[in-house]
Design a protein that fits this description.
This protein is mostly beta strands. 12% of the residues lie in helices and 45% in strands. The chain has one helix and twelve strands. The protein is elongated.
């Protein structure tokens, strides 16, 4: 009986030390990232430099109805990309020690919206996962009754009527052109 209690105590102690190890590793990532259709997006996943652990691999996936693997980096084996519009950029510290990666998405569209999962496999801690929600919005548009450039003489008034679409915000700027005379 005492031996069984001792095993349970040892298992609980081991579980506690593993859990505390995970809490000691801080991972920098964006919880939410917003982008506009056509933009290039970079999602970070970087472990805070801590002694006593070594990152073996870093992996990115997207969570939809099923989880789709996007890119993987394994030390000594290199990078594997599973989608054409993604890239993974590896980040190392000054000691050339792997600290994480960036997922780069090229020219995003609305279908790229969703939850992205960064997985870091470290020794001796094991797997660490963090999630980033990417929200891709349409390009804001403003419709005006003047669709081209036109000249206005000094002192003339101009009225242009515009309507923002899909919640777009805009501001007007005025560019003054000055004519320079070069006298010789």
């Amino acid at each position: 009986m005492a031996e069984a209690v001792q095993r349970i105590y040892f298992c609980l102690l081991l579980l506690t030390s593993i859990t505390q190890g995970f809490q000691d590793i801080k991972v920098f990532h964006d919880k939410i990232k917003e982008a506009v259709v056509g933009q290039n997006v970079t999602l970070p996943c970087l472990a805070k430099n801590k002694t006593g652990f070594q990152i073996i691999s870093t992996e990115w996936s997207k969570k939809d109805k099923i989880t789709t693997k996007l890119a993987l980096y394994v030390q000594d084996l290199g990078i594997s990309r599973f989608r054409p519009n993604v890239n993974i950029q590896i980040q190392k510290n000054d000691s050339d020690k792997l600290v994480g990666s960036y997922l780069q998405l090229q020219e995003v569209d609305k279908s790229d919206s969703g939850v992205y999962i960064c997985g870091i496999t470290a020794f001796p801690q094991g797997s660490i996962r963090r999630e980033t929600e990417l929200k891709v919005k349409d390009v804001p548009k403003v419709m005006c009754d003047m669709n081209s450039t036109f000249a206005v003489n000094d002192g003339e008034n101009v009225t242009i009527h515009c309507t923002p679409l899909s919640g777009a915000q805009y501001r007007w700027t005025q560019v003054l052109l000055q004519r320079r005379l070069n006298l010789m």
